[in-house]
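seq:
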Amino acid sequence: MKTLNKRGHLMKFNILNSSVIELNTDSICIPYYKNNKKNSDLNSVNNLIDKLIDELDTKKQISSDIGTITNIYTMNKLKSKQLILIGMGEEKELNYENIRKASGSLGRFLNNMKNNSTSIIISGAGNNNLEFNKTVNAISQGLILGTYKYDKFKTNKKPNTLERIDLINTQANTPLGTSYNFEEIINESDSINLVRNLINEPPNYMNPSELENVAKDIVKNSELELTILNVKEMEDLGMEVILGVGQGSKNDPKMIIINYNGDKENKNNNIAIIGKGITFDSGGLNLKPGMSMRTMKTDMSGSAIVLGVMKAIAYQKPKKNIMGILAIAENMPGGNAQRPGDVVRAMNGKTVEIGNTDAEGRLVLSDALSYAVDKGINNIIDIATLTGAISIALGNEYTGLFGNDQEFINKFLISAKSTGEKFWQLPVDENYSKLYKNSIADIENIGGRDAGAITGAMIIGEFAGNASWIHLDIASTITSQKDVGYNPKGPTGVSVRTILNLLKNY
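struct:
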C-alpha cells in the first residue's frame, strides 16, 4: 500500500514475519520500555553487538521517554547499519496514542538521517489488551503524520527519503491478521495533512475564492454535493452578519456548503460540521497589535478542518447525512468596514450589536448555524479559533468544548478518548448570558473580559435553535510551537480524527 508523504515520495508499507537478526534495511527500530528492557528482540541484538545496549544503559545514555531516539551503529554485525531504540515509556501504560506519538518522532528522525528503508518491530501487540491490527494502524498513521512538512515556498527543498517501511512481527504465536485498514489510515492522514497545508498557506494565496477552489476539488468525482452562496444569495437569505464581517475587504465573503447523503432513508440522521473561515483577521477597525496579527492567517482553521473531514468522508462513506459548512470572510479595516456600534441581523432574525469588530468568528458562525437549523439539521459541531481566553484557561494541551446537550457531548468525548485527542468541557450556563445581553439589539458580540471563552461560545449557541450543539475552541491547540510526536511544528489538524470517529461509530 502506498501513500504520498506530501514531499513527492511514496511510502510503501509491508507487514512481515521475521527474525530481528535477519532484517536487511537501512535501520532496525526496536521499542525500548522503562523497567522492562530485556525483551527477546532486544536481547538478540544486544548479544550480536557485544552487549553495547547494556553498556549504554549502564551509562544512562538511553532514554525510555516516549518518542526519544537512541541511534546505534551496528558495526556490520547486523545486516542493517543502524539500530534505533524508540522510547515507549512504561510497557504497562502503553496505548495507541503513545504508539502514534513515538512513530511520528521516529519518522522525522529517519528522514533526517536520510534512511530509504526501515524495519520497525511492531510494538504493543498483546500488551494492555492492544489489538495487533490497531497497533499497526497507529504506527502507520504516526509515520505519515510525523513526516509532514510544508515546503511549498522553499527554494531548496529537502526531499523525504523514507520510502519502504517493513512492519515486523517477531512473535510466531501472534497472527498477522487482515484488518489493517491502510487505505483508510492513508486517507485520514492525507485529510489531516490537507488541513495543515491549507492553514500554512500565506494569506495572499489563501483567500475566500481559493477556499472555494479547494472545495470544488474535494467534491470532484465524489458523492459529495457542493453549494456556494455568493454575496447576492446571502443577502437574499438575510445573512447580514457574515456580510458585515467581510464588507471591509476586496475579497467577498462566501458560504460554502458540502453535503453528503449517507442515509437517504432517514433524513433525521444528520449532522452539520461548521467551520470558522476568516482567511485573514486584522481585527477590522478594532485593529489588532502587529505581533498579534502575525499568525492570523490561521484564523480559517475551522473551515480547513471541515474540508479535511469532508475529504475523508467521501472515502469512508459513513451511514449518516453530513453537511459541511464553511463560513468564509476576510476581516479587514477598509473604507467600507463594519464599525463598532453597527447593528446587523442574522439569517434567523436575531439582531447583534457590534461591540468589537475583532470578535468576528462568532458572527460568521451565527449565520452558518442559522442556515443549518433552517435546513433541519438536528446535530451541530462548530470548530473555531475563537478566543485567546481559551489559552489562559487550558493552555495548549486541551481543546475547549462547550455544548447544550450532555448526551451528545458524552458521545463526542467517548469518541475523543479512543483517538487520543484531548478535549475539556467548560460550562454553558444561562447566568453568563447577562454579560452579552444588550439594550440596543438582542445580543452584543462581546461579553467583556470575564469568562471570555464561555461567552464567545454561548453567543454562537444563541443560533443553534433546538439542535444538539457542540462548540470546539481550537485557538490554543490548532498549532504546535515545536515538534511533538506526530505533530511537527505548525498546524496540527486537531479534532479531525475525533470527528471522523464520531461520524463513523456514534
